[in-house]
Amino acid sequence: MTDRASSSHDDGPGPSDPQAGAPSGAPVRNGGAPVVALRGLSKSFGGARALDNVNLTINRGEIHGLLGENGSGKSTLIKVLAGFHAPDEGTLEINGQPVSLPLAPGQFATLGLSFVHQDLGLLRELTVLENLRMIELAQSRSWRIDWRTERRRARELFAEFDVPLDPDALVNDITETDRALLAIVRAVEDIRKATGADRRGLLVLDEPTVFLPREGVERLFAITRSIVEHHASVLFVGHDLDEVREITHRVTVLRDGKVHGTVVTKDATEAELVEMIIGRRLAQLELERPDVVQHETAISVKGLIGTTLAGMDFDVRKGEVLGVTGLLGSGFDELPYLLFGARSCFGGELTTPDATYNLATMTPQRALAAGIALIPADRQRDGAVGSLPIWENVMMQVMGDYQPMNLQLRKMHQVAGELLQRFDVRPSDPRLVYQSLSGGNQQKALLAKWMQTDPGLILLHEPTQGVDVGARQQIFEMLSAAAEGGMSIICASSDYEQLAAICDRVLVVGNGRIVRELTGSDVVKDRIAEQVYNSVTLAEAE
C-alpha cells in the first residue's frame, strides 16, 4: 500500500470537505491558520534519527490522531512540543504565529498548549481540589487560601463539563476514569487561562485511555468532543485503532521517525492504518486453538467472594484460555488478583491437581508455590521494578536457583539475554533499565519472566493495554503457544477483540456473578460486547 498523503512529509490542510471524517458533534473548522503547524521537524539522539523532517498540522476544532509503533517518534514529537527536547531542525507556528524552538520549560502553557499523559500527573495523596488548583495556588502571592471560594469554583467547573467530582475527595479514592477526567478538566482550564475565549489552544491526550474500562473511554470521548466544540483542538495519541477511528477526524502515522501518511479517518480502513503503522500488511490472526472440551480440569474455583464478586464457581481445563469480562463495577477485573492473593478475598477455594487452597488466606507467596503467576494491568507499578535492569526483573523469580548469586551473575545475564531473544524483546540488552522499554516490550519481558517458571496457571489483566499492534499479535501468539503446551490461562479484559482472538471460552460477569458463558461460535467480538452490555439486565433477572 502506498502512503495515504500527497507526500510522506506533507499532511496538508485536510480534506476539501471540512466535515469529512468528523465524528458526530465535533465539526472541523478549517477557516484561518492551523492551531499548531510543525514543519521540517528533525531530532537525533547520537546516531539515531528519532524524527526525520516531520510535518504536522492540527486545525481548529479538530481531533487529530497520532499513531505509530513504540519507537516511531510519537513521544519525541510530544516532548518537543512540551519543551523537553530541543529539535535539530524545524519550525513551529501557533495560530499562524511563528514560535522559536526550542520552547523554554513551561512555555507551552503560555502558548495555549496543555498535556495529559498516561500517568495523568496527579498526586493521589491530595484532594481533587488540591490537584485542580495546585499550580495556581503555588504561584499565588497570598498566604491565605479561600477554600470556600475554591470549592465553589471547582464545583462550577465540574458542572460545566458534567463531571460529578467531589472537590474534597482524595484522588486515591476516586475511580481511574474520574482521575482521567480530572486531569483533562485541569488541562482545559490551563488552556482557557492562556487563550481566553478564542478556543485556539491544543490539548494533547497521550494514551489517556490505557487504564480505562470501556465505559470510562466513552465518558472520556464525550468530554473530548465537548472540548473541541467549545474550548480547544485535540491531538489524540493512542494504540487502540478502534478508539482512534471512533474519536478522530484525521490521523497522522509515524514510522521510523517519518510521517507515512495523513488520512481522513473515516476514509481509511483498519487494515490500511495497520499497514501504514508497521509498513506491511499484518497477516490475519488465525490461532488454531485445539478443542479443549475433553481436557482434564486443571483449576477449580468455588465460592469466590471479593469486594464485588459474590460467590463465583468455575473450572479451567488444562491448556484452556478462559476469558473473563464485564462492565465497570461488575467485579470481573478483581478476579485475577483474588486468585493470586494480591487483594483481600472474603471466601472461596481454589483446587489444583495437587492441593486445595483457602482463598481467604491466599498470599502471592502461596500462589507462586502453587504454580500460579500474575501479570497485572499496571505492569510498571505492580508487575516490575522499573528502575532495575531488565535482567533483574526477568530473573527475579528464579534467583534462588543461582547460588551463590555473586558467582552466578554472568550466567544469569546469559539466561536473561536468551529469554529476551526468545520472546523478541527489543532491544535485547539485559543491562538496560526495564522502564526504558516500550509498552509491548515490557509486557514481553514479563511473559519471559513468568513463562520460564512453567506455571500451571497464568493470570492476566488487560495484557495488551498500551501495546502497539505488532507486539499485540506477538503476545497473542505467545499465549496461544503456552496454552498448547498445557498451561491454563485466565485473561480478564475489557478488550472484546482480544478475548475473541485468544479465548476458548468467555465468562461474562454482572453484579459480581457469572451471567453468561460463551463458547464456540459465540466467542466473537460482537457477541461478547452484546452480552456484556446486557449483563446488568441478565444479573437482575437471575
UniProtKB/TrEMBL annotation:
Task: List the residue ranges of the region (Disordered).
Answer: 1-33
MF term (GO), any: ATP binding
Q: What are the record keywords, sorted?
A: ATP-binding, Nucleotide-binding, Repeat, Transport
Under InterPro entries, the record lists:
AAA+_ATPase (IPR003593), ABC_carbohydrate_import_ATPase (IPR050107), ABC_transporter-like_ATP-bd (IPR003439), ABC_transporter-like_CS (IPR017871), P-loop_NTPase (IPR027417)
CDD domains attached to this UniProt entry? ABC_Carb_Monos_I, ABC_Carb_Monos_II
In what residue span(s) does the ABC transporter domain sit?
Answer: 36-536
- Show the ranges annotated as biased composition (Basic and acidic residues): 1-12
**Is Kinase among this UniProt entry's keywords?**
no
**UniProt-recorded name of the protein:** Sugar ABC transporter ATP-binding protein
